[in-house]
From TrEMBL:
UniProt keyword list: Cell inner membrane, Cell membrane, Membrane, Transmembrane, Transmembrane helix, Transport
PANTHER family for this protein: QUEUOSINE PRECURSOR TRANSPORTER, QUEUOSINE PRECURSOR TRANSPORTER-RELATED
Pfam family, one: Vut_1
Subcellular locations according to the entry: Cell inner membrane
Gene Ontology molecular function: transmembrane transporter activity
HAMAP family for this protein: Q_prec_transport (MF_02088)
InterPro entries: YhhQ
Name the UniProt record assigns to this protein: Probable queuosine precursor transporter
Membrane topology: Multi-pass membrane protein
UniProt family annotation: Belongs to the vitamin uptake transporter (VUT/ECF) (TC 2.A.88) family. Q precursor transporter subfamily.
Keyword Membrane: yes
Assigned GO CC terms: plasma membrane
Transmembrane segments: 39-56, 68-85, 91-111, 132-153, 173-196
């Protein structure tokens, strides 16, 4: 049990630390006539795995230990983020991560006895929306430029104009990135159902279901 718990914590730390770095890099590619750099960062593809780790921890260990996985991952990931990313990114990531993951655990627990896909799907969708709002607002909206200034850094806000999702009306770049990020999270939430079910079935075959 302890070894599985430590694996869950390590997985959470790895996912969040990697995502905190990758979110700083837009996807430098074109899709048709759309510049994906106006829509996505590479972190959009890695961060949703954190919800998979949380949901599997919740299913295997129950909500209390799942919260421990989240808190342990939060503490270590924030420390790594301060080293690997800017203080503003670290604050935004830590805040969004903690609030969204704890909400995910609560929703998952309420739905854990329904159809196998209900809990991971709906908990991830709702929590991903909240995570996206908190992170991109704190990390990139000009309203929170004071965080950079407090740490003696240049304003890292992404407030310059860009077409919404590369094709729509002009909005501030962080808003387009946020919407693109959330749309990827929706797709990833669907894709994560397959590994969730596979690992869930394996875990449940080896231990009793948590209450």
């Amino acid at each position: 049990m302890l070894s599985r718990f430590l694996v869950a914590v390590a997985a959470m730390v790895a996912v969040v630390a990697a995502s905190n770095v990758l979110v700083q890099f837009p996807v430098d590619a074109m899709l048709g006539g759309v510049n994906l750099g106006d829509i996505l960062t590479w972190g959009a593809f890695t961060y949703p795995v954190a919800f998979l780790v949380t949901d599997l921890s919740n299913r295997a260990f129950g909500p209390h230990r799942a919260r421990l996985v989240v808190v342990a991952g939060f503490v270590v990931a924030v420390i790594l983020s301060i080293w690997l990313a800017t203080p503003r990114i670290a604050i935004a990531s830590g805040t969004a991560f903690l609030v969204a993951q704890l909400l995910d655990i609560s929703i998952f627990h309420r739905l854990r006895n329904s159809a196998w896909w209900h809990a991971p799907m709906f908990s991830s969708l709702v929590s991903s929306a909240l995570d996206t709002i908190i992170f991109f607002t704190l990390a990139m909206a000009p309203a929170f430029a004071g965080i950079d200034l407090f740490f003696g850094m240049e304003d890292g806000s992404l407030a310059f104009p860009a077409p919404l999702l590369g094709v729509g009306a002009e909005v501030e770049l962080w808003q387009s990135l946020a919407l693109g990020d959330f749309l990827v999270k929706l797709v990833m939430a669907l894709l994560m159902l397959a590994p969730y079910k596979t690992v869930r079935d394996l875990v449940l075959s080896r231990m009793p279901v948590a209450a």
